Amino acid sequence: MEKNGNNRKLRVCVATCNRADYSKLAPIMFGIKTEPEFFELDVVVLGSHLIDDYGNTYRMIEQDDFDINTRLHTIVRGEDEAAMVESVGLALVKLPDVLNRLKPDIMIVHGDRFDALALATSAALMNIRILHIEGGEVSGTIDDSIRHAITKLAHYHVCCTRSAEQHLISMCEDHDRILLAGCPSYDKLLSAKNKDYMSIIRMWLGDDVKSKDYIVALQHPVTTDIKHSIKMFELTLDALISFNKRTLVLFPNIDAGSKEMVRVMRKKGIEHHPNFRAVKHVPFDQFIQLVAHAGCMIGNSSCGVREVGAFGTPVINLGTRQIGRETGENVLHVRDADTQDKILQALHLQFGKQYPCSKIYGDGNAVPRILKFLKSIDLQEPLQKKFCFPPVKENISQDIDHILETLSALAVDLGGTNLRVAIVSMKGEIVKKYTQFNPKTYEERINLILQMCVEAASEAVKLNCRILGVGISTGGRVNPREGIVLHSTKLIQEWNSVDLRTPLSDTLHLPVWVDNDGNCAALAERKFGQGKGLENFVTLITGTGIGGGIIHQHELIHGSSFCAAELGHLVVSLDGPDCSCGSHGCIEAYASGMALQREAKKLHDEDLLLVEGMSVPKDEAVGALHLIQAAKLGNVKAQSILRTAGTALGLGVVNILHTMNPSLVILSGVLASHYIHIVKDVIRQQALSSVQDVDVVVSDLVDPALLGAASMVLDYTTRRVY
User: Which residue intervals define the domain UDP-N-acetylglucosamine 2-epimerase in the entry (predicted)?
Assistant: First the structure.
């Protein structure tokens, strides 16, 4: 078989400068090594790999069983701007002899480091073809200039995102020499499964540390503003000390300013502080596990905004070093990190959260694409680069079948009668819905939920929907932080102290959110309904029971024991009917579907329910709808019961107006339209004049429980800037 335009193997030189670029290059090197019939691999090691202060990281290359052909000491110590320039010059002096000896057909260069610029310059001037990994990206410092300079020297380009691809095209690079492959490190990240991750955590952070209860900090100097970046690092350490969580701090890279940052660490006693572990280097396999199970990562490393998104770990990105990067929803930007309080507040916002896993930078199949791309290089083609000035081709890069997916959520609604699962799009459209009767036992119920969710997730692929996570709406008191149903309503049996998050997350490998159905209704209104854009509003659900949700300053109120917004149990009469909660005189005892059914049965037993034009089949249970029908047909007693129920609900709304003073009250559920006019009458008669102008409306959402469950997932897909 003819390879690369001739009958010999392609001789590939991979040059690695530091721990960061090796994590991207290693998967490619392993791939090349597995195909010796096509490739010969030469490995050149230079830069900070060979410096003791930075961990002598060349050893991990040897541990990966790669033969290092050449070691080049190219770093001039000093860790300032002049030392960086001198290091580039020293590399340029030493590299020609190495390249003359190795005579590679192609050199693979990664990223945007000053060492990589020296490699690309040497190879270009010596007529060696260059394959540049991760070109076209935008970060926010001098790295941008170096990266784009390497792009102009490189003959072939492997990029990670579609935006990066478009940037390369805009820079007039030949579209046929661009491969959109994804980041090679994602091949390892997305296949990294280590059940013994706790041993790694204990090894680096101590025996008493738990998963999701520690922080990983990695911060580098910003070479265009060294003074400010050192100050920001000092503030970060102060915030971490105050936050009082076990923290693994990695030493900064070798850029100008790193020496001063290390001095700051030592001045604050970080290396001897009981809450901190300061290390020069962590092997990549172990680093993956550490960030995957961290409560948060903080700093300004590209790793935080790129690789960590694969695990959904919360990230706090400080300053401007990565300001232009594409990021997942797990990243909170603190661009003006100029106070300790601002960083500390960001830690409180992010620590311990779990976000959807992001695949912005890769799908785990980059290396096979890159190897195929390498095999396609024809060494007989002219070496001189061709620049493609506008107009730009519109076809996509080779070997990439780009499919636009609909970002969606799996929504689960656990009702007293039915169990529903739906695929819900970002716009709130229910793409597909599945309904089954809700089983009576825990085992049957949890198995059915898993079965329906697996079926829906499989169907989502066929419908071209990308599932970002699972949201669950259920009756009862819920701890949304842990995803646990604490106490259920009487309508759902065997449903107390139930962990819903763990079995679904383990089965589907997706993040899972759980909340009370009333809260979900409020979330649905906030994202898709009449509460959209409002700072303060209250939702009341009128169904089998009475529930609700409170949005205050754009946030859902859960309360100290997750019992906020139990609006159905506001007492409106001291001597009212018994309520299912054990009290009496609650709104739910008057206005819920169960309460109306109770009154309907009483009338029916006394032959006072049915009027002319109305009948109830013998096999049909008398319910609230029969009472409503009787009232519409002129049954005075039924009308009186509905008026009393509506008045009780109206008094509850008055109490809400006087307590919360929202800008809107939304009545949701099947009974809302029957109560709205009575509620408004009660407000006019009973409420203070200062709140009588507050609007009360009927929800126009068809499935608020499902939409609310979906919104818990979809709200995290918007990038947030703090």
Answer: 37-375
As a three-state string, the secondary structure of 289-307 is: HHHHCCCEEEECCHHHHCH
- pLDDT surpassing 50 at residue 401: no
Per DSSP, the three-state class of 540 is: strand
Three-state secondary-structure class, residue 129: strand
Q: Report the Cα–Cα distance between both ends of the chain, in Å, rounded.
A: 56
SS3 track for 422-442: EEEECCCCEEEEEEEECCCCH
CA 175, 176, 182, 184 torsion: positive or negative?
negative
pLDDT at 637 over 70: yes
Q: Which residues contact 554 (CB under 8 A, 6 or more apart)?
A: 526, 535
By three-state DSSP, how is residue 479 classified? strand
Which of left, alpha, beta for 187 (phi over 0: left; psi -120 to 50: alpha)? alpha
Angle at the Cα of 550 from the Cα atoms of 549 and 556, rounded to 5 degrees: 95
Environment class of 591 (CB within 10 Å of its CB; exposed 0-12, middle 13-18, buried 19+): buried
The set of catalytic residues is 517
Rounded (5°) CA angle 405-407-409:
135
Predicted local distance difference test score (pLDDT) of residue 140:
72
- pLDDT of 494-536, one tens digit each? 888 999 999 999 999 888 999 999 999 999 999 999 999 999 9
pLDDT tens for each residue of 97-121? 999 999 999 999 998 989 999 999 9
**Other CB atoms within 10 A of residue 715 CB:** 16
Provide the Cα torsion 697, 701, 707, 709; round to 10°.
Answer: 40
